[in-house]
Amino acid sequence: PATMSSPAAADTVWPRAAKLFLLLLQLCAPRASPQPHRCPNTCICTSDLLSCSRQTLRWVPQALPPTTTTLDLSHNALTQLHDHWLAALPHLEALHISHNQIRDLSPRAFHNASFLRHLDMSSNHLQAVERHYFEALVSLEELLLYDNHIKRVDENAFAKLSDLRKVYLSWNNLTTFPFHAVQGLGIHKLRTLDLSSNSLSSIPVEVLAALPENVGNGLYLHNNPIRCSCQLYLMLQRWNQRGFSSVKDFSEEHTCKVSDNVPRSLIKFLKHRDMFENCSASTEDAHLSHLEVVVGQPVLLACNSSNSSLPHAATTSMWITPRQEPIKHPGNSNRSLEVYPNGSLRITAAKPW
C-alpha cells in the first residue's frame, strides 16, 4: 500500500532545498567587476595619459585615475598645488603645469611623486626657486622653469636631484646664479643648463672654465648683460673653437656690457671679435658727460685716451652705437661716424635714438 510522507518531514526538506538552490545561484552568477576609474568631466583619459588642458581650471580635479603616467594641466588658471596632491598617482612620470598662475610651492607639494622624471612649470608666476620646491623629486631628469618671474635660485635647490639632466631657466629675472652649486647637479649627467635671456651682470669665469665638457657644451648664457672682460671673451672663444653648442649656435646673441654706467652699451662681442684681438689688457670706463646737440648738426665727442693709465700701444678706443655695433678708428664704412686716434668720436649728423 502507498504511503505518504508526514508533514514534519516535508517541513524539513523544503528549507534545505531552498538553501541549496540559493547556494547554486551564488556559485553560478557572474562576479561583479570592480568599479572602473572614472575620468574627470573636464579631462580626456587614455590608458595612461590624462589631459585636462585649456579648461580654465582653478583647482586640480578630484579622483584622478591612478594608472596615469602623464598628466597635462597646462593652460589653466591654477594658483597653487596642495600638499600630497599627487599621492593618488603612484606611477606618474611626466607632469605638465605650464601656462598657469602659480607663484610658489608648498613644502610638500611634490611629495609622493618619487617616480616623476619630467616636470614642466614654464610660463607661471614663480618668484624664486626655494630649496624645498623639488627636493622630493629624486628621479627628476628634466625641469622646465623658463618664462617665470624668478629672481633667485637657492644654492641647494637642486642638491638632491642627482639624475637631473636638463634645467631650463631662461627668460626670467635672474641677476645672479649659484654657479658653484653646479657641482651638485649630478655633474656627470647634466647636459643642459639654460640661463639665457636673464639679467646676469657677472659670472665667475674661473669656476665655469673648469667645468667638464658636457656642462660647458650645454651652459647657455647668451642674451645677458654680462660685464665685458677678456676672461669672459677668451673662455667663450675657447668653447666656440671646441664646437660647444651653447656658444656656436648662438654666437650673434652673446652680448656683454661695456660699462655699468653707460646705458645701452651692450656689444655682440663674438660677432665683432676683432674688437678683442688684443684682449690681454684691462679696460677703463670713460667718464660720463652730458651734451646737448641739434638734430642734423655735426657733433664732436671728446675722449682723450692719452690720459689713460694704460700704455698708449695697448690702448684701443671703442664706441658702441645704439644698434650694439662697435666702432673704432678710423670709423664706420660710410664715414658718418669717425673715430680719431685719441679716441674722440665725430658724428657727421646727429640723429635721435
Automatic annotation (TrEMBL):
It is found in: Membrane. Residues 1-34 form the signal peptide. It is a single-pass type I membrane protein. InterPro entries: AMIGO, Leu-rich_rpt, Leu-rich_rpt_typical-subtyp, LRR_dom_sf. GO terms for cellular component: membrane. Keywords: Cell adhesion, Glycoprotein, Immunoglobulin domain, Leucine-rich repeat, Membrane, Repeat, Signal, Transmembrane, Transmembrane helix. Its main location: membrane. Belongs to the immunoglobulin superfamily. AMIGO family. SMART domains: LRR_TYP (SM00369). GO terms for biological process: brain development; cell adhesion. It comes from the Eukaryota. This is AMGO3 protein. It comes from Spizella passerina. The keyword Membrane applies.
